[in-house]
Design goal:
Strand order of the largest sheet: 34-35-37-36-38-39-40-41
Number of helices: 12
Oligomer: single chain
Helix content: 10-25%
Radius of gyration: 27 Å
Strand content: 25-35%
Shape: globular
Number of strands: 41
Amino acid sequence: MRLALLAATSMLVAAAPAPHPMTPADLDKLRTVGAPAVDPAGQWVAYAVRETDAAADKSFSHIWMTRWDGSRTVQVTSRKGESESSPRFSPDGQWLAFISGRKDGADDKGGDGAVWLLDRAGGEGMKLPGIKGSVEDIAWSPDSRTLALIVTDPEPEGKPAAPEAKPGDPKPAEAKPGDVKAPEDAAKPDDKRPKPIVIDRFQFKSDAVGYLGKQHSRLWLYDLATKTARRLTTGDYDEALPAWSPDGKTIAFTSNRTADPDRNYDSNLFVVAVAANPTEPRTLTSYAGEDNAEGWNSYPAWSPDGKLIAYLEGGPVELIGYGVRKLAVVPAAGGPRRVLTPTLDRNVSQPIWTRDGKAIRVIVEDDETERLAEVSAADGTIRDVASGFRVFAFPTAAGGDALAVVMSDPAHPGEIYAFDGKGALRQLSHQNDAWLKTVSLGAVTRTSFKSKDGTEVHGFLILPPGKAAQKLPTVLYNHGGPQSQFDAGFSPIWQIFAGHGFAVVSTNPRGGTGRGQDYAKALYADWGGPAVPDALAGVDDAVAKGIADPARLYVGGWSYGGMLTNYLIASDARFKAAVSGASIANILAGYGTDQYIRDYEIELGRPWEHMDVWLRNSYPFYHNERIVTPTLFMAGDKDFNVPLLNSEQMYQALSSRGIRSGLIIYPGEHHGLRRPSFLKDRMERWLAWYDKQAAP
């Protein structure tokens, strides 16, 4: 019997399909693991997992938990067609809170983010009542009795729409000749008619949000005993990233409380006492730039004794995203701040104190990696605690000096790992293990080369699995931002190109982060300047190595990656085909039509005052006669980040001149596509465009 079973097992193993190169269809199989939360006993790690329901053409997020020792994994939530995110354990260990827009019974319409509680002793989830608006963030008080919430105001209420007629309802009496209509009936409005959108803000639109009204994201407290919510602060401002003091008497948060927050990035750190009535918060920082900006996803970090708060101070005001943010601490009682990393020419994020309060751990963005480092609270001395050719994110305290982190590398999507505090890492989640066994991935190597002016540029070279590294069709794939970088994390787009038989060149040209402030600001107000020769140098390097076939070169990217594509094809005719996604070429068209009004006026100045700067950055449109490359443009029709009109302009310009071009519009999509079928379609069309232009 045993021999028969062994033989059957061998046959099953032999019959298993061979791994295949990654294709667009594999996007539906990838799972994304979110930030971890560790229970107070240090025994379980909770995290959200986003996966695709191909039949529903949507992605959904559910909560999972894994024991710290890795012995057991359970899926906590699983309602079909609904999502849950942001798991948070109560400090007493009894509750697991999360955010979900799912329905609570037949009468609940769902939709807005609400707080749900799961009793870890068992039972169904419970939706907390009495919260008006959409919950964006949760933070437990140390005594587990209160939740600090960031709640976005509900939409203003208008007149209710008239109920729809049902079968069997009596029909209204028809008017007869000679009937006299009552005056109030004559002017009765149609309640179903749309209302005008009233704009009275300087910053009046935001991608995936839409036109901005008077709503704000505010700090609230929720009392679990009475099941009531109350505002903790005063004023009409946006508030974010709440963090309780160790004694539970104070909450730190981030806000821009200038006279007109739409006109600057002057966010600061505030503290507010947990009082019975709304109170005026106390300002802790006053730097004119960004302090602990919401987009950095870095909560204020209280020292264990509650005396200091660690936070992030932004770079020079005029450099906006090109500036390097630094780690700082400020007394919780008030006083001057101390910058702990004044000479570290790298961005830091996500501070978390060691148990003894002597050091602060941070993520350091450094030259194509994201490493975990420890900064002395006394003198700012920095030492690495977990590094290498990989990416760390979302460190979370896990008892003692252990941490739960998300880690990724070029061959593995992000998963939860246990870090023992001394350097050892152990994988806890295995959401993508089964899928990884079905695919063969291209090898990813780091490259270094010189740009036209001698500047050293770094990047990546990806080879198709199983292909010899010689004279391959090659894609120059550009990153977005530009204030970002290609790093050592897993890239499905790299692997899809490689799986199709392309070598991939991805560079980190000037303007990107990870190489210091001077390297980043070299692109300031010159978006088509040094990044162009830097990116082309990566192609030259691949050609010189005998990897890239100079007769079969292609280029593409999304967002700034699409913009750089436009600059490249307006500067060089070597590419056989281009794909420009969610891009802009006529920068003048962006003023007042997208969400970047503050950035434009800080970096480029007002168009009527600095027209030369705007035209210099718009040469792919105003000098599109230089472009001979067949180009496919792609965009979502709801994109307020880089609106569709920009792609339409370039498509129209090239079509007018008879250059082979195409335009793909994804209905209902914002800057980052979300519908799974569209994500798949985008990559299929991308590959097909290159294939078509390669045909004789």
